[in-house]
Amino acid sequence: xxxxxxxxxxxxxxxxxxxxxxxxxxxxxxxxxxxxxxxxxxxxxxxxxxxxxxxxxxxxxxxxxxxxxxxxxxxxxxxxxxxxxxxxxxxxxxxxxxxxxxxxxxx
Length: 107
Description:
Layout: H1 11-17, E1 26-33, H2 52-60, E2 70-72, E3 78-80, H3 82-91, E4 95-101
C-alpha cells in the first residue's frame, strides 16, 4: 500500500458503533493524531498479543471496507484495535479515525 497520512474509515462503521441504548456513550471522531493515542494494556477490551502476521495482513491486503476505527476512552487510551493501530503506524499514517467510548455514559 502506498504511504498516506490519513485513510478515512467507511461511514457505516461510525454509524453502527453508536449504540441505540447509549447514544452519548459512543462518539465517532475523524482524523485523530496517532501520536495522541496512549497505551495501557490493562484497558484493552481483549488483551491479546500483537501478531506480526495479522498486522502484515492488514497492510498487504488492505481493504477499505474493513478499515474500522479504533476504540479509545475519553483520555485517548486505546481500548480496542491494537492490530489496526500497529498497521496504521506501519503504513505511515499520521491520523486515524476513532470511536470514543465513554463508559460512564452507559449507566
